[in-house]
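Why should sequence recovery work at all? Because a backbone constrains its sequence more than one might expect. Tight turns favour small or flexible residues, buried strands favour hydrophobic ones, and helices have their own preferences. The token representation captures these environments compactly. In the example below, the structure is given first.
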């Protein structure tokens, strides 16, 4: 529901370029929700496996930020109308903002580790850009998410683990090596 709400907050229109920064538990769903509303999706991550997952879920384009500057790559095609930030790195927030085209909207879902994201005010105002925050969602959003999933419009990618694997699984999440979601069996 978290990324569903972010796509709603962004007001994504058909054929708008949506850049999803961070493909994982939230990002793999953001790719799907942006596609459902007609967005042209570019997935950005630093691991090829997550980018392949994004491709499999319908991303129109992918950018490996460990190999290519995502700002240059996005701006070379006109920039992003919407940048959804799901990572926790301040550098990624800065990259997402700089990748916006005139009038673009940045939706902050992830929280930078240092708690700061400096916004260049002249560029914000003169470029007509917006920086938006989005958190979780409402009961209605949850109902809509369940309806989309029940209709087969989305796939939640999970790996099942035993409860004894909690510590190791948390280490994987913190290291960013989990493809999407971990589900624990009780």
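From this structural description, the recovered sequence reads:
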């Amino acid at each position: 529901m978290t990324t569903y709400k972010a796509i709603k907050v962004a007001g994504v229109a058909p054929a708008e370029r949506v850049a999803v920064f961070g493909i994982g538990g939230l990002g793999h769903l953001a790719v799907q929700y942006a596609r459902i509303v007609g967005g042209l999706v570019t997935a950005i991550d630093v691991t090829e496996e997550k980018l392949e997952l994004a491709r499999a879920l319908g991303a129109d384009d992918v950018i490996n930020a460990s190999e290519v500057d995502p700002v240059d790559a996005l701006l070379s095609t006109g920039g992003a109308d919407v940048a959804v930030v799901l990572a926790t790195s301040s550098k990624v927030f800065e990259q997402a903002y700089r990748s916006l085209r005139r009038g673009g909207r940045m939706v902050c879902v992830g929280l930078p580790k240092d708690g700061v994201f400096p916004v260049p005010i002249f560029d914000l105002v003169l470029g007509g850009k917006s920086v938006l925050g989005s958190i979780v969602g409402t009961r209605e959003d949850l109902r809509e998410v369940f309806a989309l999933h029940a209709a087969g419009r989305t796939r939640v990618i999970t790996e099942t683990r035993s409860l004894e694997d909690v510590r190791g699984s948390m280490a994987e999440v913190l290291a960013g090596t989990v493809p999407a979601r971990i589900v624990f069996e009780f």
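A few observations help interpret the result. The chain has two domains: 2-133, 157-186.
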